[in-house]
Design a protein that fits this description.
2 strands, 131 residues, two-stranded antiparallel sheet
């Protein structure tokens, strides 16, 4: 990860204070973003940056809120929506499906039967999607 961050010119802390950590809240916030029409990629980026750059605890609403506020989202709206039964159920179902498929890590994309794991594989994913 450190080498890839260096190539991309990205800051990284390879030993974050809060890792591993429960992902439930962060996953629900990402699902809530989609339900609100907010770019999930931006929210996911904020979550990952919170862990790997800013040493924030994404299992803590306050810390996660700091990460989301830093990119201009309505934190209260996202967190409130993430706590609804519908969003929590949807997040759990997505997680169950990922486990059933054997997915691990972030990002992982599946196109038909082809898996693309890691940001260093996104060029391959782009080629697959263009077919």
């Amino acid at each position: 990860m450190a080498r890839w961050a260096e190539v991309q010119g990205l800051p990284i802390n390879t030993t974050p204070a809060f890792w591993p950590v429960s992902m439930g809240l962060a996953c629900s916030v990402i699902v809530a973003a989609d339900s609100l029409g907010i770019d999930q990629g931006m929210v996911t980026g904020a979550v990952l940056s919170a862990v790997w750059e800013k040493d924030l605890n994404i299992a803590d609403e306050g810390d996660l809120g700091k990460a989301l506020a830093g990119i201009g989202f309505d934190v209260s709206l996202l967190l409130d929506n993430a706590s609804t039964p519908q969003i929590q159920e949807a997040s759990e179902e997505i997680t169950k499906t990922a486990i059933q498929l054997g997915l691990f890590g972030s990002p992982t994309y599946v196109v038909k039967e082809n898996w693309f794991f890691g940001q260093d594989r996104l060029d391959f994913l782009e080629k697959e999607l263009s077919r």
